[in-house]
Structure formats: C-alpha cells, structure tokens
C-alpha cells in the first residue's frame, strides 16, 4: 500500500461523492469520466494492464461520449427537488455498507500469495499458456481468446444484441414521429392506443 | 484486529464505500441519467473488487517477458519465424523433446534464463522465479466491462425514447403523467360503460 494507492483511492471516493451531490448533469458525466480514469490507473497498479486499458477506452471514452450524446437529446440539469438529501435511501445504503464491511472481515488479506483465489486453478494459467499457446506473452489474452473463448463469443453476442436493440429503439421513435406528424412531449396519445 | 490486517482489507473497504455511493445514487436520485451514472460507479467498483483480489504482493502483471515467450514459441513450433527476436540464436532449443506440457514451461524459462542477451539478462530478473498476479480476474472483468457498456448504451437509448414520449427524464414526473393517464383512461371507460346499456336498450 503505497502513497499513490492511498491518493488514488481518496480521489476515487471524492469523485464518487461529488457525482452523487452535483446537480449539473454535464459536470456529473465529466466526473464519471474522471472516475473511470482514476479506476483505470488503480487497476494498472493492481497488475491488470489489460483491464486498465479497456476501462480507460470504454469507461472513460465511449461511455462518456454516449452519455454526452444522450444529454444533448434530453437536457442537462437535474430537477432541484431530485438532488436533495434523502434519509431513507441513505439509511438503506449505510446498512448495506455495514453488512458488506462485516463480510470483508472474513476475506483473505489482499496480496497474500496463499489466498484461495491464487491456489485453486492449479497449475496456474501462466505456466499452462506457455506450452499451449506457443509462447503468447500475454496470459490474459490467451485465457480470454482460447480457454474462455466461448465466454468471449457470448460477450460478442450480448454486444451485438444490445446494438440491434439500441438501433430498433431509436428508429421506432423516428417512425412513429413521422407517422403522426410528431407530438412533442405528449404521452397521452401513445397511452390511448395501447 | 491488528494494523497489518486492517491494511490488508483497506482496499475492500474503499470498494464497499464506492459501491454504496453508486447504490445511493441509483435509489435516491430521481433523474434517469443520474441513475445510470450511479449504476456505472457501482459497476466500476465491482471491477475494482475483483481486480484487487487478483493482486499478489511483489508480483508483476501476467505478461511473460519476450525472451521466455519466444523460447516457448521455439519450443512449441519449430517452423515459426522469429525475425523480430534475433537475439536468442544460440538457444539450441530445436534439439529438445516433443513434450511441451506444463513441465515444458519451467524448462523453457530455464533456457531463457541462460540466454546471453535480452530482457531477462538485461533486467537481472530470475526467469524461473517471476511471480505473476492472477490473470483470471482480469479476464472476467474484461468481459464484464464490455457487457457493461452494452447495457449502458441500451439504457441510454431507452432514456432517449422515454424523453421523446414523456418530455422529461425525471422519474416522479413520469410517474405523475402515468397516473393522470390512468385516471383519464378509467374515466373514459366508465363513461363508455354508462353509455352502452342505453344503446342496447333502444
């Protein structure tokens, strides 16, 4: 646990709280980008460069762009009444948090080589990939592309399905608008048809 | 609980704090976009939880140094070309046996350690004793990140759609509009019911 670790964790916590408190959605989205970038940095410190790159590209990049384009279509400020402190959700959250922290007391120490997670798949993938993959240097790539290839195929299917769904949802809106000549902000009409 | 134990769990506590912040945003904020932001924070903290489990003290990222990897490549496939890594010409690996299972790995590392140049020789790292962090959490989280962005995109598309129909992305306003509609629909249905017996009597 170095000073960098502590600093990044502190920044992460501050950023998260700021996102919860801030009312301007543009600013909140920007803070989400910062949050993703900070977590990417921390992942790099935790020896997971692949996840770090992906998080920086997807979390801080694509996700921010998607959020901003949504904001451009929907408006940028949260209603004042929506951003005030709410005691009941806060209580729920504190209770859940306390339970989770109580649960962590039984967790193995971070970084201990004898943790169950490091012992179970034995021999380790690092040793196995050297023989199986003919010297592919990056073990994460080997596991992702080969040992868990079907998982990655499933992931691709999920992304494909989501992409089609997004296209259908956004296109349906346009078609309906052109059919009825557009009725901005009116929910009553669609409700009646149903 | 000693200080050392507390430090070993410190990561988890911060992750729990981040998770709960995201959870609070999801359940307490009425703006739909804000809820998605909260969901993203929650998601990222779950990634951090898994990644910190995979960390081993004093270990390095699970990427094998080029020398050792190239030696393994020689070992596994004699016909592959390695023009990019000309420095390990003197390995003599071609004469080695066909067995390249798990035992082969140590052998390969051994060979690479004895090569005169390259990464291992330059950095002075003992090739047989490099400790790598666990690659499995990284793999799982890579998948999770990509699936996460897919669901986020879907949620945002739905929000755009909601905004087109309701003219707002505030949850309470949407509920209010729904309730008004429902009441109006009931009124109309009641009127229809009242009117229909009269029609049939005539």
Automatic annotation (TrEMBL), chain A:
Q: Name one GO cellular component term.
A: plasma membrane
Query: Which parts of this chain are annotated as the region Disordered?
Result: 175-194
Q: What positions does the domain MrpA C-terminal/MbhD occupy?
A: 10-74
- Does Membrane count among this protein's keywords? yes
Q: Which residues cross the membrane?
A: 6-22, 27-45, 57-76, 88-105, 152-170
**InterPro entries named in the record:** CPA3_Na-H_Antiporter_A, MrpA_C/MbhD, MrpA_C/MbhE
Identify the main location: membrane
Q: Where is the MrpA C-terminal/MbhE domain?
A: 122-173
Keywords recorded for this protein, A-Z: Cell membrane, Membrane, Transmembrane, Transmembrane helix, Transport
Q: What is this protein called?
A: Na(+)/H(+) antiporter subunit A
- Which NCBIfam families does this one have? PRK12504.1
Specify one Pfam family: MbhD
Can you say where in the cell this protein is located?
Cell membrane
Q: How does it sit in the membrane?
A: Multi-pass membrane protein
UniProtKB/TrEMBL annotation, chain B:
Provide a GO CC annotation, any one: plasma membrane
Q: Which residues cross the membrane?
A: 12-28, 35-53, 139-160
Bilayer topology reads: Multi-pass membrane protein
Q: Which domain of life is it from?
A: Bacteria
- What UniProt keywords are attached to this protein's entry? Cell membrane, Membrane, Transmembrane, Transmembrane helix
Is the keyword Lyase in the record? no
Q: Which compartment or compartments is the protein found in?
A: Cell membrane
Q: InterPro entries, per this entry?
A: CPA3_antiporter_subunitC (IPR050601), NUOK/Mnh_C1-like (IPR039428)
Keyword Hydrolase recorded: no
* Coiled coil segments of this chain: none
The similarity annotation says: Belongs to the CPA3 antiporters (TC 2.A.63) subunit C family.
Please state what the protein is called: Putative monovalent cation/H+ antiporter subunit C
Species of origin: Rubripirellula obstinata
């Amino acid at each position: 646990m170095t000073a960098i670790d502590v600093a990044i964790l502190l920044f992460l916590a501050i950023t998260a709280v700021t996102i919860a408190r801030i009312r301007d959605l543009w600013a909140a989205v920007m803070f989400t980008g910062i949050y993703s970038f900070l977590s990417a940095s921390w992942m790099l410190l935790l020896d997971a460069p692949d996840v770090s790159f992906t998080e920086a590209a997807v979390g801080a990049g694509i996700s921010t762009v998607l959020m901003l384009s949504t904001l451009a279509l929907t408006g940028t400020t949260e209603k004042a009444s929506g951003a005030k402190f709410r005691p009941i959700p806060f209580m729920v959250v504190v209770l859940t948090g306390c339970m989770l922290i109580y649960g962590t007391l039984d967790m193995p120490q971070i970084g201990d080589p004898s943790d169950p997670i490091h012992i179970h798949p034995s021999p380790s993938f690092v040793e196995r990939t050297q023989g199986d993959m003919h010297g592919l240097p990056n073990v994460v790539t080997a596991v992702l592309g080969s040992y868990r290839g079907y998982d990655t195929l499933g992931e691709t299917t999920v992304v494909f399905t989501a992409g089609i769904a997004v296209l259908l949802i956004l296109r349906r809106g346009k078609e309906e608008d052109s059919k009825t000549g557009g009725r901005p902000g009116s929910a009553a009409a669609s409700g009646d048809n149903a | 609980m000693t200080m050392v134990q507390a430090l070993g769990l410190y990561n988890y506590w911060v992750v729990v704090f981040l998770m709960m912040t995201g959870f609070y945003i999801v359940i307490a904020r009425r703006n739909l976009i804000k809820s998605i932001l909260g969901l993203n924070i929650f998601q990222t903290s779950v990634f951090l939880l898994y990644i910190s489990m995979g960390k081993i003290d004093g270990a390095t990222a699970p990427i094998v140094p080029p020398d050792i990897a190239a030696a393994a490549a020689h070992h596994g496939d004699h016909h592959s070309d390695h023009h990019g890594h000309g420095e390990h010409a003197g390995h003599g690996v071609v004469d080695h046996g066909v067995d390249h299972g798990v035992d082969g790995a140590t052998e390969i590392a051994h060979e690479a350690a004895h090569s005169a140049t390259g990464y291992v020789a330059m950095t002075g790292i003992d090739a047989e004793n490099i400790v790598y962090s666990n690659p499995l959490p990284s793999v799982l989280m890579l998948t999770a990140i990509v699936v996460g962005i897919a669901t986020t995109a879907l949620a945002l598309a739905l929000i755009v759609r909601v905004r087109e129909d309701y003219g707002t992305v505030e949850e309470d306003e949407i509920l209010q509009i729904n309730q008004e509609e429902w009441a109006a629909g009931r009124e109309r249905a009641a009127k229809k019911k009242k009117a229909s017996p009269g029609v049939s009597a005539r």
